[in-house]
Amino acid sequence: MENFDFGIVGLGVMGRNLLLNMADHDFSVAGLDLDAEKAASLEKEADDKHTIKGTTSAETFVKLIKKPRAIMLLVPAGKPVDSVIDSLLPYLEDGDIVVDGGNSYFEDTNRRVKSLAKKNIHYFGMGISGGEKGARFGPSMMPGGDKDAYERLRPIFEAVAAKVGGEPCVTYLGRGSAGNYVKMVHNGIEYAIMQLIAETYDVLKRGFGFETAQIQQLFEEWNQSELQSYLLEITAVILKKEDPNTGKPLVDLISDTAKAKGTGKWTSQNAMEIQAPVPSIDLAVAMRDISKYKEERVEAASKLRWNDSTETVNNEEIKALFKDAFHFGMLTIFAQGMAQLSIASKEFDYGLNLEEVAKIWRGGCIIRAAVLEDFRKAYKNNPELPNLLLDEELSSQILPRQKAMRSVVKIGIGKGIPMSVYTATLSYFDAYRSESLPTNIIQAQRDYFGAHKYERIDKEGVFHTEWEN
Q: Would you say the pTM of this structure is higher than 0.90?
């Protein structure tokens, strides 16, 4: 007893794979699950070289782990997390560490941090990205909590994390719920880039008649360029897969009603609360919502018609145009997400180092991409950079591509094909680069109907006008 390095509660796919990953790196690990079959089968998966123990008893599980204990929860977010904490508390002691490795809402993490601190127990919220394969062979991990307590976790996490250039894709991120917040925004960026890829596929297919195989080849080519990213890579694989019964591309037989677990919505909601504009993420969430209204969309398709003019186009020119527009879109989406992290770090006193965030996202995680190394360099050069669009190197990549972006958005509008994220991304760019915005009209309107007052550009103070006189 008390000889095991680490424990995980929840032996589903993620928990089991992460435990096996730790065992591969010579850590002794214990697992707890109410399902006796899962607990027993965990030990069977390990070979003689690994020290792994599975149990269904919370008391036995806690007593297996060396002090100060390090225990990770990999259970569904919400009430299940609180339930597991309650089951462990009678056996935990001062200085023990509990790590929530699920996609918990950051405010829930704040509550748990305060509650467990009263019992002298350290609570960490840690985002994990990379899916089941990442958990087994190297995820990106985003822990936040007490900095001193992190030293108990660091050797294990650094060993099992994905590596880029020998550097582990994990680091201490900041105080309180910093880890969960960073993972939440990671998922928001993920939503937007997934939608950007989907819209590219849609316009090429519906708008220009590209076959699925042509789009697959295009995405595969892009992934060998400066656009290299995990999401492009897997999309190329998806488009290549054939249905064994019909021989058709499997993706063509998949329903267009998308689901979501809520992290994208949380990103948008909190961005609005802290006044961090992320319209690309907002619209990516909205498009998933619209997809659920299938029956209404089918009816609307027969009534709300639009016939675009057919044009003869050069496929190679279209491919080049969309490549530049996609590049513009991906960079500007990342800029929005990273700007939200910058604002949130000040708002919630996280103390985030955005260079470190970009660094640990380079490998293991779902949004890993070649451009993250450019982001890391940008924040290294200027740790206080409020927005990636202000970095000279990155703006030099974006500016030559804005013409393509504008052309692609016009194409979507002309053809009546929804390009919500493309359009929102361009609008964000244009708003951010506008020295003057028409919000002076809004100030005046608010003062007219609500006497909310307004500011002037020629003198200090706030003013109210009787507009009818």
A: yes
What pLDDT shows up at residue 49? 65
Q: Which two tokens stand for residue 268?
A: 């948008």
Shared domain check, 223 and 77 = no
Strands 52-55 and 97-100: unpaired
Return the percent helix, strand and coil in the chain, to nearest 5.
Answer: 60, 10, 30
CA distance 77 to 79: 7
Q: Reply yes or no on whether the pLDDT at 190 is more than 80.
A: yes
Q: Catalytic site residue 392?
A: no
User: Which is nearest to 127 in space by CA: 182, 188, 196, 70?
Assistant: 182
Say whether 233 is catalytic: no
> Residue 366: CB partners within 8 Å, gap ≥ 6?
129, 130, 131, 186, 190, 230, 231
Structure token pair of residue 103: 């996609």
- Asked whether residue 441 carries a pLDDT value surpassing 80, the answer given is yes
Among residues 53, 190, 199, 319, the one annotated as catalytic is 190
Q: Which two tokens stand for residue 313?
A: 């186009």
Name the residue range of residue 468's domain.
439-469
411 in the same domain as 327:
yes
* 1 occurs within a structural domain: no
Catalytic residue among 49, 66, 107, 183: 183
Which residue type sits at 191? Answer: Y
User: Helices H, strands E: what count in the chain?
Assistant: 21, 11
